[in-house]
UniProtKB/TrEMBL annotation:
Name of the featured protein: DUF306 domain-containing protein
Ribonucleoprotein among keywords: no
Gene3D superfamilies the UniProt entry points to: 2.40.128.270
KW Signal (keyword) present: yes
Positions of the DUF306 domain: 38-149
Matches recorded under PROSITE patterns: PROKAR_LIPOPROTEIN
N-terminal signal peptide: 1-23
Entry-linked InterPro entries: DUF306_Meta_HslJ, HslJ-like_sf, Hsp_HslJ-like
Keyword field: Signal
Length: 153
């Protein structure tokens, strides 16, 4: 019985760390400021607010944890959702952006970070538009929610 229990626990941990999950995405295309691929590729962003509510990273042992990031390459997005990593692809077409193929790892973390992550991934999966307020601020629009990022790189 002990061996079965240990085997079951091992399988659970193996799958919880290695699987990916599909995030909801309408495949919707939104409008915003005209952006060229070269202007957005190879940039990194840090989430500063969800729907106007300021996001403050949690401090543990003198380090920030739960930082939510968005990294953009020529055709892919990825980043940290606070606890888990996420990834997907995007396409730009003039004023339109389309996110697709979204997925993430499935690890558990502190309840408050998991709640913040869930809210972020839910909004990210429903992005319908974007706006650059200046060269250092990116706002993704997801229905009634907005995700505000500050440029890191």
């Amino acid at each position: 019985m002990k061996k079965f229990f240990l085997a079951a626990i091992s399988v659970f941990f193996l799958f919880s760390c290695s699987n990916t999950t599909t995030l909801q995405n309408n495949g919707a295309t939104g409008t915003g400021t005209t952006v060229k691929q070269k202007d957005i590729a190879d940039t990194s962003w840090k989430l500063t607010a969800i729907s106007g509510e300021k996001i403050t990273p949690k401090m543990m042992n003198g380090q920030e944890v739960g930082v939510i990031t968005l990294d953009i390459t020529a055709d892919k997005i990825s980043g940290s959702a606070g606890v888990n990593r996420y990834f997907g692809t995007y396409t730009l077409n003039g004023k339109n952006i389309t996110l697709s193929g979204m997925g993430s790892t499935r690890m558990m973390g502190p309840q408050d970070l998991m709640e913040k992550e869930s809210k972020y991934l839910s909004a990210l999966g429903n992005v319908t538009g974007f706006e650059f307020k200046d060269n250092n601020t990116l706002v993704l629009k997801a229905g009634a929610d907005t995700l505000t990022f500050t440029k890191v790189k």
